[in-house]
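Hi there,

I know you've been waiting on this one. I reran it after we fixed the sequence typo, so this is the corrected version. Both the input and the resulting structure follow.
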Amino acid sequence: MFAKPWGRDRLPPPFINPSGARIGEVWFEPPAELDGLLVKYIFTSEALSVQVHPSDAQTLAAGLGRQGKEECWLVIDAEPGAALGIGFAKPLEADAMRAAALDGSIEHLLEWHRVKAGDFFYISANTVHVIGAGISLIEVQQNSDITYRLYDYGRPRELHLAEGVAVALGAAHPAKLRFHLGADGPLQLVEGPHFRLDRIEGGLPASVARRYAGGPALVIPLSGDVTIAGEPIARGECGLAASVAALKVPDGVKALIAATCGS
């Protein structure tokens, strides 16, 4: 668990915060078998910073190695009126974006989406975004720690205006990259370019098994315990399956499975 200025002192079940600190993140150390993929739970009582991440091509060109970051969010709980800011409501040039970041008006230029449990968003590199207050979500991402903050609501943390504006798209978030998950059944959420992600329920459909065959996968239970090679993995945990053939999902239990593309 990691304390954050925007985190919560009370966490939703099944998480427990014994310290009283404002916990913002619970994340799982990427295993060597899938070291390019990171899974987090994020809990907010305040908005995070307005931020942007570069692409692999941009970090390689800058001599930083392959450190781009694309990510996706599955909302698991949201207070009434809670929202995510993703992309801009109207096209925005670089100079105007920098000015808006400096005076704080950038948050009002974003496109805000009120959310509820089951809403899903894919955030491509270069997309300006912010997670608002009152949201709990699962984040699956490329394993990179490069974040450029454009605006931080007056918190005394470093901003990265030059770097952020240089990579940010002043454009809308494509509607095809967000949708609401139906209540039941398997569903393909992401298929590349960097990772794949599926929701499964009560078993592993043959089509999903084929897509994940031959490599390891991360497993995130959503509604109950699953087993990997006979070992239980509870809701709120993240397990590694050497092969999806070792994964057992009981009837009525939902889980996410994720792997890097090419695994």
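Quick highlight: The first helix runs from residue 56 to 61.

Best,
R. S.
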